[in-house]
Amino acid sequence: MKYFNLLLVIILMASCQTAKINNTKYNVSPATTELGSIGQATSLFKLKNDFETHSFPLLKNNIRLDIKTMPFNKKLYSIYSKKAESAQIKKQIQYADSIPVKPELVTISILDIRSYLNELNSEYNRNITTYLKDTEDGVVVTGLAVTFPKETLTQIKSADAYYLINEQEKKYTLALFTNGKKTSEIDLKSGTILGYTLGRFCWAIDERHNWYIADIVDNDNGCKGNTESKIKEKERTSLFKM
Questions:
Q1: If DSSP states are collapsed to H, E and C, what string results for the chain?
Q2: What was the pLDDT predicted at 75?
Q3: Contacts of 221 (CB under 8 A, 6+ apart)
Q4: Which stretches of the chain drop beneath a pLDDT of 70?
Q5: CB 223: neighbour CB atoms within 10 A?
Q6: Are 163 and 175 in contact (CB under 8 A)?
């Protein structure tokens, strides 16, 4: 019975570190995360998540994003309240089951993975690919669950296309487009980030026998097809001799 109770406590604690939003599991953590950033993720027995940012790839081309909204529920509002408390910010959202129109949460994720990979494999991001080859366990923030002020939420809902852009060094912003024209930009830090998703890199060899990043998969999934999660040591050695 003692071991059963201990297991139950561990399961309950682990469930508090993740939240399922739109059928996707988000990591809940006090860590500051930015969409598209690369770094190291740690998890203490899957009871405490952390993410340490290492770099922001230079994006010379806009990256298409997917954005969805959904109403708050009790669990999401509890996570929001704890995040606001830990960040010592005033809560801008109030929730109760009795409210007929619930406040909404925004999920933002990288939609055009191929374009993001093209940026990573470019010459101007060589230092980042070198870092990923050397560390082998680097991950990328592929999605965020964010709350925004009402005015920002209205702007987002009025747009029909969304892009991650990099017009200033090491600064990403959300660009809103309507009918093919940019209407505004939003600093993602203006919202409260409740959770994030992570992606792992998969590697492949091109026709010149050089390794490149071929795919990004969910952090809990394995690489598919002819891609590898790590560069094989024998082939890595021959690569460095070239």
A1: CHHHHHHHHHHHHHHCCEEEECCEEEECCCCCCCCCCEEEEEECCCCCEEEEEEECCCCCCCEEEEEEEEECCHHHHHHHHHHHHHCCCCCCCCCCCCCCCCCEEEEEEECCHHHHHHHHCCHHHHHHHHHHHHHCCCEEEEEEEEECCHHHHHHHHHCCEEEEEEEECCEEEEEEEECCEEEEEECHHHCEEEEEEEEEEEEEECCCCCEEEEEEEECCCCCCCCCECCCCHHHHHHHHHC
A2: 86
A3: 200
A4: 1-16, 43-49, 86-90, 170, 233-242
A5: 18
A6: yes
